[in-house]
Design brief:
The protein is mainly beta. It folds into two domains: 44 residues, no CATH class; 138 residues, Sandwich (Immunoglobulin-like). Helix content is 10%, strand content 25%. The chain contains two helices and 13 strands. The strands form four sheets. Strands 3, 6, 7, 10 and 11 form a five-stranded mixed β-sheet that branches. A hairpin with a 5-residue loop joins strand 1 and strand 2. The longest helix has 21 residues. It starts with a helix and ends with a helix.
Length: 255
């Protein structure tokens, strides 16, 4: 007999036994049909004696997970990146810049050192005066960014003159004229004699150069200035003289 035939007969016999158990009934004394009871359990044995895997027992506890691992679906199964850092502040904003410091105040600009007033940091103008007669006013305005000093008196040269006129000694101020940016200093020029008797060699000039003295009062420093004269020029003679630089216009024209 072949192995296949023997296995087929075994399965057929088992099925017959199960069918008989379900259909078997008994009659009671009153003619009712009663169940003959549960069918006997049938254990199937596989051929060739191979052990069958035991059925899973629903009452048995689930196999414990490996130490340190979390069950699927538990709160601990989330990724490590989703956990808050141990030292992170509770109210920290994820977009807040790190190590933010208060802005520093801009440094104050360095103070400009005072210097001597001269042609490059001033503007000079020349204007003839009606009173006193035969006088002209020189005005020097500080155009720089710091204080400048007007030392001594203006060294003026009219036309092609070879020498500068003398200064009126008594007009010397008590202090050096100090000009802040935008401020002006003054000096007056006595162009000619008022009565025509004190001067000689009178003539008309159409150009003027003004030079500036340094602290010693003897040397010429920096650039000169060339203020414009009236188109018809001005009349000068040998009585030509100038005042010291003055802090106010009134002091300048009083000589």
């Amino acid at each position: 007999m072949s192995v296949r035939t023997s296995r087929t007969r075994l399965i057929t016999a088992a099925a017959s036994v199960a069918l008989a158990a379900f259909t078997m009934t008994a009659c009671g004394d009153n003619g009712e049909i009663k169940s003959a009871g549960p069918a006997p359990s049938v254990r199937f044995t596989s051929f060739a004696g191979a052990p069958t895997s035991p059925a899973a027992d629903p009452a048995a506890p689930p196999a414990s997970a490996a130490p340190g691992s979390a069950a699927p679906g538990s709160a601990a199964s989330g990724s490590a990146a989703s956990k808050p850092a141990a030292n992170a502040p509770a109210n920290a904003s994820p977009n807040a810049p790190a190590n933010t410091s208060a802005p520093k105040a801009p440094a104050a600009p360095a103070a400009t050192k005072p210097t001597t007033c001269e042609g490059s940091n001033t503007k000079t103008t020349a204007a003839p005066l009606n009173r006193p007669v035969n006088h002209m006013l020189l005005t020097v305005t500080n155009t720089g960014s710091g204080i400048c000093y007007l030392h001594g008196y203006p060294a003026v040269r009219f036309g092609e003159a070879q020498a500068v006129p003398p200064v009126i000694t008594d007009s010397k101020p008590q202090a050096v004229v100090t000009l802040k940016p935008g401020e002006s200093g003054y000096a007056s020029v006595n162009l000619s004699s008022t009565d025509g008797t004190d001067g000689s060699n009178g003539h008309t000039v159409t150009s003027l150069a003004v030079y500036f003295h340094g602290p010693s009062g003897n040397e010429s420093v920096g650039a000169g200035a060339n203020p414009a004269l009236p188109p018809k020029g001005v009349y000068v003679d040998d009585s030509l003289k100038v005042t010291y630089w003055q802090q106010s216009m009134d002091d300048a024209v009083s000589w």
